[in-house]
Predict the 3D structure of the following.
Amino acid sequence: MIAKVVFVITLLLISMIMGIVSRAIIKKQTIFGKPPVPVFFFVLAKMFVLVNLAFLFLKGLNIRVENIFVPGGFMNMTGLILLIIGTVVLFISTISLNNDLIFGLSSSDSHKLRTRGIYSLSRHPFYLGFIFILISSCLFNPHIINILAFIGAWLIHHVIMIKEEQFLTSMYGEEYIQYTKKVNRYITLNT
């Protein structure tokens, strides 16, 4: 049963990513901006994410891999909960960003600072959603390659978040600084 749910959610994630790219192509929008870290690390971070998504897809297909240990029912249920939460957070942040969704730093002045809705809970809900999804992949398949890919993805994306925050501070100044005092990078529980 868990494998079927994981399969459906993985297909939804793939469809969402394809939809974002397709929409940008149709509307002739820029989807890639200037990477906030050297291109090698930017691409490496995305490759790590793909590795985690591949392991997630294997779980959805109910294909067993040689893991460090066999995850029990609690880990599988926790993984499923994180997968669902991560997907919902990713979906809401994607909808909230609308035309401003760009991978990298935007050179456009038309982008708006988001501070309401899901952005009142996290400065980086898109990344947060993916982090939950990647953790769920590791819980479902605690394979050394999956775990190392998650660690690599998280470390590089953490640096990307810091660089994006520096960029946003230079763009929005005091408005962004005040926002960072109210909202945490990952999760703000006291709203």
Summary: The helical segments are 2-26, 39-60, 73-97, 125-140, 144-172, 174-182.
